[in-house]
Amino acid sequence: MNCDGIARWYRALEYLVFGRALERRRLEFMNRMTDARSVLILGDGDGRFTAEFVRRNPEAKVDSIDLSPRMIKIAKRRAGDLASQVNFRVGDARTVSLAGKYDLVVTHFFLDCFTDQELDAVVARVSEHCEPGASWVLSEFALPEGGLPRIGARLLIRFMYFCFWVLTGLTVKNLPPCARIMANFGFRLNERRVALGGLLASEMWELLSTEGDHGINSGGAPSR
After folding, report:
1. What gap in Å lies between CA 147 and CA 203, rounded to an integer?
2. Torsion angles phi and psi, residue 222, rounded to 5
3. What pLDDT digit, counting tens, does each position of 93-133 carry?
4. Domain assignment of residue 200, yes or no
5. Is residue 183 part of a domain?
6. Is residue 88 assigned to a domain?
7. Are 6 and 168 in contact, with CB atoms under 8 Å apart?
8. φ, ψ for residue 221 (rounded to 5)?
């Protein structure tokens, strides 16, 4: 999803709809990332998470990749004097070249921009460049367990997908099964925290195996 067309107003639109709820999800596990030294951040948009991360972790080396050149420009400006700590790159997570190994991957409100098949391929590619024991921290929209909150969340998510289709051309219409796909590639969910009645979730995953068990869902992973 290329947000060039809404880059200038993205933060204002987010605050208008959700206040600082999404921002709190991005920062939920920030204090648990202090040991990371080689970090991959995908789809951080205007760079609010990246700027805060490098401010708190000056020893970490960061690759921050986003499809939108305008978002990357804003992210560089936001990082200020710490921008030299970050390798900002314009690229598509499905095809961009990755080198080396990472001990931390971060994706906030990003994985739900892919179809099931696309996300499967993205997680497969990224997992190949993760150290054993690497952490993957993510935030995402989710569906509450049941009842009226689930119905309301489903309607809101469909409306948001429609808005992003209009604004960016995003063709995805449904949340992909992130938990199942992560588990299939050897990641274990260590912690999950939710907000807004379960509509928003922050999760910490750990890579137990670099080989994965593609097609086999491990126990304990939450389902959509």
Report:
1. 23
2. -70, 150
3. 999 999 889 999 999 999 999 999 999 999 999 999 999 99
4. yes
5. yes
6. yes
7. yes
8. -80, 135
Whether 217 maps to a domain, the answer reads no
160 contact partners, CB below 8 Å, separation of at least 6: 141
Question: In terms of Cα–Cα distance, which of 221, 195, 178 is closest to 22?
Answer: 195
pTM above 0.85, yes or no: yes
Cβ burial of 169 (10 Å; 0-12, 13-18, 19+) is: exposed
140 neighbors 178 (Cβ within 8 angstroms): yes
Distances (CA, A) of 111 to 115, 123, 182: 9, 9, 11
Between vectors from CA 132 to CA 129 and to CA 133, what angle results, nearest 5°? Answer: 120
Number of structural domains in the chain = 1
End-to-end CA distance of the chain: 22
Question: Alpha carbon of 193 to those of 51, 121, 145: distances in Å?
Answer: 23, 26, 14
Q: In what order do the strands lie in the sheet with 200-207?
A: 86-90, 61-66, 38-42, 102-108, 130-141, 200-207, 187-195
Which structural domain range is residue 37 located in? 4-207
